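Agenda item 2: glutamic acid complex prediction
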Amino acid sequence: MNYKDLADLIFPNAKPISYYEEKYPERNLPEGAVVTRFAPSPTGFVHIGGLMQCVINRQLTNQTQGVFLLRIEDTDQKREIENGVQQIVDSIHDFGIEFDEGMIDETHEKGNYGPYKQSERKEIYQAYAKYLLEQGKAYPCFATAEELEEMRKKQEAAKIRPGYYGVWAKYRTLTVEEAAERIKNGEPYIVRFKSMGNEEKKIRHHDVIKGNIDFPQNDQDIVIIKADGLPTYHFAHAVDDHLMRVTHVIRSDEWVSSIPLHLELFQTLGFKTPKYCHYAPILKEEDGKKRKISKRKDPEAAVSYYHEEGIPAEAVCEYLMNIGNSNFESWRRANPNAKMSEFKFDISKMSVSGAIFDLVKLLDVSKNVIAKYDKETVYEQTLEWAKRYDAELAQMLQDKEYSLKVLGIERGNTKPRKDISKWSDVKNAIFYMYEDKFFAQDIHYEYDKIQDKEEIKKILSTYLEKYFNINDDKKTWFDKIKDLAEELGYAREVKMYKQEPEKWPGHVGDISTVIRVSLTGRRNTPDLYEIMQVLGEESIKRRINKLLA
Ligand code: GLU
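Presented output:
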């Protein structure tokens, strides 16, 4: 009996690996093309760090005419939830990111390097496990849960490194005959990797983001195939990244400590190692301290949060690009109208220590993104958001023609309005423009300098009687407000007032504030002339007459 016989006993039906090597050939891509993947478990949850990875991966693969694929890592079936794959696909899709290959919904996929769900690749992993068994580089292990527990306790008591290695690797030294005997007797087992590493020796690894790192070699005989016949993450990722011809493994740096193991696996399997790029976690600052943004504590850790808040996908992606490469910000300043895809992302320039996530900054980015949108885009995106999250707003937007006028106020010019940073801001920003909403609310007209009721009435009635004409152009309109100011004894220019403030009760600006507050209930609004044009004569009169009464 030799290794080959033992391998045949364990995996009698596994194909030779040459079959898969031919089935998944090297990709025919331009020089320098990056092939990378997003490889979540099907938990349905996408963390903001995962989305950042997708933004970066998409950018890099577009830049190099490479391939970005979605692989579902479902070998730990305890973590699965119903529709978990679909939710992940949808979440990423919500941010305008498409995969070139991989899962497209819960059960379907596209691409020639699949299956893209690990649970459907069982026979592939077994073929590679068999290949290792045949060479004596893997072995069946019969340790029971009790045995492993006892080993762990002994290690703990003796204060030595935990794990299954060296002298602790009890079943490593079974002869093939002994192992075969146990298998034939129906003893349960799993398959372990036979490490040749020595903990006392060092290896040097070059990480694309972190640079050179020295590690002790791996010496753990990790499990590669579990009792259920499925692989562990470590083994599966090596086989998959090899067969999917992945060039760059871009992943969160919680995996960096697995590097010695992963390098040994690649080497032993005869695979070319991909480039590893371990990115730092996104941090949050709280009480002056930095910590990882956490799924448990921070609502903004889940990408669904941004969708619910109505922060446009484009803004979130821009902000994440910002976190990815800090020079993005200056690029954006120099190229305010360029598409984000024109930015040249450099993965090696990612932060080693982790960037701080700043919601205020994100909203600032978002405000500028929205300011560039035309009214149709604002309308469509707000409506889409409102249909899901705000029925009242959706109802307001029913009147499309009028809503487009409202949303068009101070938009599409050189200094667009910037009071909207998310779709959930829109209702408050436009509420008073809707007649029924305006009259239904209990308005506290907070005037500014001019507070006296009789004075306000005089301003409004004189305005309506003598100066208001909806057909005036902007200059005439403003000249008339100046005339009104003058007639009532106010300075017609702010400048005049500033020179001799004691001479006047106020200036033209105070007069227009009275009109503004009366028409909108607010002191701060976008351009009053544009507002009045959209409201129209009837509404203006109704609003003012309500006050006069
Ligand atoms: N399934 C692993 C995770 O979700 C993937 C890590 C990797 O990208 O290799 O963390």
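Discussion summary: The CA atoms of residues 142 and 189 lie 5 Å apart.
Owner for follow-up: CH.
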